[in-house]
Amino acid sequence: MPALRWFAPNAVAACAGALVAGLIDGRSAGALGALATAGFLALIAIPGIAVASAIVRGVIAGWQPRVLAAQLVDADGAAPRLAGWLAVVWLGAFALGAVMFQSVWALALYTAFRPLATSILEPAFAVAAVLGIVALSRPCARLFAHLAARLDAQWRRGGRRTLLRPRLLFAAAVLTALAALWALWRFAFAPRLGPLDTDPLYAPAAGLAATLAVHAAWPRLGRARAPIGLGCAAAAAAAIAAALIAVYTRPSLSLEIWGERPLVGLAIDGLFDLDAIHARIPLAAFRPVAQPAAAHPDILLITIDTVRADHTPPYGGRADMPALAALAARGAVFDRAFSPSNVTRRSVPSIIVGLSPGRVRGRVVGWALRIDPRHVVLAERLRAGGYDTAGFMCCEGFWGKAFHTGLERGLAHLEIEPRGAVLARRARDWLDERERRPGRAPLFLWMHILEPHNWAVGGELRSEDDRRVAYDRTLAASDQMVAEVLAAFAQRPADRAPIAIVTADHGESLGEHGHPYHSTDLYDAQIHVPLVIAGPAIQPRRVAETVSLTDLVPTVLELAGFVAPRDISLDGRSFADLATGRRPGDPDAGVAFAQMIKDRSSPGGLTAVIKGRWKLLDDNDNLELYDTRGDPGEHDNVIGQHAATVGELRRLLVAHSARAEVSPFP
Question: Contact, 310 vs 517, CB < 8 A?
Fold first, then answer.
């Protein structure tokens, strides 16, 4: 019984902390959603908080703070020695933090960001710093105590009460620490880190506050302890029951909570296999409807990371890309193709799901987006339609098993390799071996090349020309990889050639509008991408009509001989008729949208709509309008000169934003 009484506040505080954190995390999910959210979190948080509380209380008991205070406080109530040790703890923590920060930074630069070398050397810095702080702690504490006593003596000469009372000292230490942390964050860290999404911190902060409040109040509750403890336990049990009911009777609610509740999503990941839930859906549910008597050609989709259109040969660029130039000469070149976002984790899911970024449900994991298991990706649709499917992808963070992003779903054969040249060779070897097999089904192969994303790594780029040359060099290297894969089909007759699609997930700013890379704005440098399609039935032509890569899923399905769905699961609309020449295209028609979504490292809140020559940017506070034909660099904001155009584009943006609120799931 004494052991149970000692552990009781840990359990009650754990229930209270987990419930408060869960309710805060699920505050906009409705009554059942909020209760289930709290239940999911309670399943893993209650044991963790209870054990952590027990450890902290045990450590405090071992230190015997009352006995320690009696030793550090003088008979007159002053505690100069306590002031000295608090100063040592505060300065020691600051010194240790500074040493760790600087050493990690220096080692990362010195070792070229190699994590193994950094992780081996960093403990040496930490141990040396701790030993130095420990060695200096006692003499420094005595020095600070002496100085504090001298200052306090001056203060007390007028008959005033000592300033070195323990409570005042602890309060001053806490306030000083908070002020220092705020100043460090405001002036040292935030300018370097850029925008960060702090929303995920609210729930754990509230849970921690509730846990501490229970522990602080417990000694004073007296007879109220039992009813309060039982009430917390009952509430936790009800929340856990709601979570289990949601799993087995409301799976869509469970998946919604997983996708939209960052803290609780981690709990659900640890407790349930979301991929197994998705795997229960029969393949027939994804099967597209075949067009009558339509052929089913091989489809080759190559997405290259971080390629802006105007640096590639089909768009007048100077990069050495003969394979892409040859493909463009015999295929359709889309002059005005736009990516749905300016960062891979938002654009690639949008491209392969066929939804605008705002309607793709999921959760950021690492640098990728783990998409909601209810989404159906392009490879799943084609595999259900009878296609063999294969993926040759860079990198593990997006397509590997560690993060389970779902982007790899439907790819029956998957190889992941960070080196693009090796990846292309492996794809070529696999294709050559497959070509020798009889009775092959049609093939969908997707290859994603990363090289241009890392164009600025490994060199000192002092001038604008240096940057452009370095960038174009990676485009040329990527083109060799494209050529390697296309060579696997070189001996085929024209009627058996694959439909080859080459595009990019987003562009790259090279200093335009003050931004050196991507993920910062929605000007054309970051979202205007190449799009070349060649193969059977594709007419060599230039297409001036605006298209979006969100339209790629229905387009590929139609080119593969299927009827593209037109339901809430897709935002995109097929432009296959433009590629085949069945429709000439209108330079003033076609609409593309782009979005920056708020998440861990993006401030979000920026949208763009492109229609014909006009482009409207909206950051919720200001509007910008550009005539991208007459002003391709987007330097002249003509927002005040074309009221009718602005009105039309704003209506399109409003309708697009409204659709983003519509669930993509039936």
Answer: no
Q: What pLDDT digit, counting tens, does each position of 150-183 carry?
A: 998 888 887 888 988 888 888 888 899 889 888 8
499-504 sheet: strands from edge to edge? 413-416, 388-393, 443-449, 299-304, 499-504, 531-534, 332-334, 541-543
Determine the angle formed by the axes of helices 65-72 and 30-63, rounding to 10 degrees: 50
Instruction: Judge contact between 247 and 36, C-beta under 8 A.
Output: no
CA distance 592 to 617: 12
Residue type, 509: S
Domain ranges of the chain: 1-74+199-272, 78-164, 296-590
Please check whether residue 34 is in contact with residue 27, taking contact to mean a CB–CB distance below 8 angstroms.
Answer: yes
Gap between the Cα atoms of 405 and 370, Å rounded: 4
Q: Are the CB atoms for 408 and 376 separated by under 8 Å?
A: no
Measured in Å, how far apart are the chain's first and last C-alpha atoms? 54
pLDDT, tens only, 356-390: 999 998 888 888 998 988 899 999 999 999 999 99
296-590 folds as Alkaline Phosphatase, subunit A (3.40.720)
Asked if 443 and 275 count as a contact pair (C-beta separation under 8 A), the reply is no
Which tokens belong to 273? Answer: 């296999």
At residue 589, φ and ψ (nearest 5 deg) are: -115, -175
Cis peptide bond N-terminal to 232, omega within 30? no
